[in-house]
Design a protein that fits this description.
Elements: E1 3-5, H1 13-21, E2 26-30, H2 41-54, E3 58-63, H3 65-71, H4 78-83, E4 88-91, H5 98-104, E5 109-112
Parallel strand pairs: 1-2, 2-3, 3-4, 4-5
């Protein structure tokens, strides 16, 4: 499984295309870290999603409750997040309810951040 990281603040479409050409299948990004300015996120996120789709890359954004604030999605609305075109999620802090994960699997391909997994989980 080969993947790369790409961030909205320095999005490089050619980098994504080259990565796909050499066999990358996943693109990790973060939609919650403080360093990532999402002020013009809608346009850049649309470009990132479109480029990933055109190059058979699965975008896997790291999310937390902060993501919804940054993207202007109210009440942690997963339907609103799905409407952006995101089909996979890497769940970071704030997603530790097992039942919620089961529900999310119906709409998203899920990846877990190892930092949120403990023995109980």
């Amino acid at each position: 499984m080969l993947g790369i990281s790409a961030y909205l603040q320095d999005l490089d479409v050619e980098y994504l295309k080259k990565a796909a050409e050499i066999g990358a299948r996943f693109v990790f990004t973060s939609l919650h870290i403080p360093e990532e300015n999402l002020e013009d996120s809608e346009e850049k996120l649309d470009l990132l999603l479109k480029t990933c789709q055109e190059n058979d890359l699965l975008l896997v954004p790291d999310i937390s409750p902060v993501t919804f604030e940054k993207l202007g999605i109210k009440n942690r609305d997963m339907t609103g997040l799905k409407k952006t075109g995101i089909n996979a999620l890497r769940l970071d802090f704030g997603f530790d309810d097992y039942h919620e994960l089961v529900t999310l699997q119906k709409d998203f391909q899920l990846f877990l951040n190892a930092s949120i997994v403990d023995e109980t989980f």
